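Q: Structure tokens for this one, please.
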Amino acid sequence: MTTYPTKEEILKVPTMTNEIIEHTIKTWKKMCYEKQWKNKTKREKFNSLNLLAEMCGESITVEEGTYSYNIKTRTIKIEVENPSIISTLHEIGHALLGPNELYACAWSTQYFKLCFPKEYEKLKWEGHMLRKK
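A: Here is the predicted structure, written as tokens:
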């Protein structure tokens, strides 16, 4: 069983961002998010999140399923019925940083806040997760 970090632990992690990943996410945002994200179907959002994973890590594979990361196959699972940018970033964080839950939480939170500041402000903390208010 995984022990999840607290909000305080996540926010205490020093900045883990770099310009290349930041540019990649912002490029994806312009290509996919800013072009009618709210009007896309769940399948279209899933496909867009698949592209985000590919852009962030060339050897990351994406499949449908409950959000998770398989370290052996370098496979991210994304929920088609609940396409989430921050959850996808979290799994990409695992793919790039390994199984450490604190680092994946901090990495995804830092990038989401950096690249989606307006959307970040609309979220509230529930344990180690950010959800819509």
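A few notes: Residues 22-120 form one domain. The mean pLDDT is 92.
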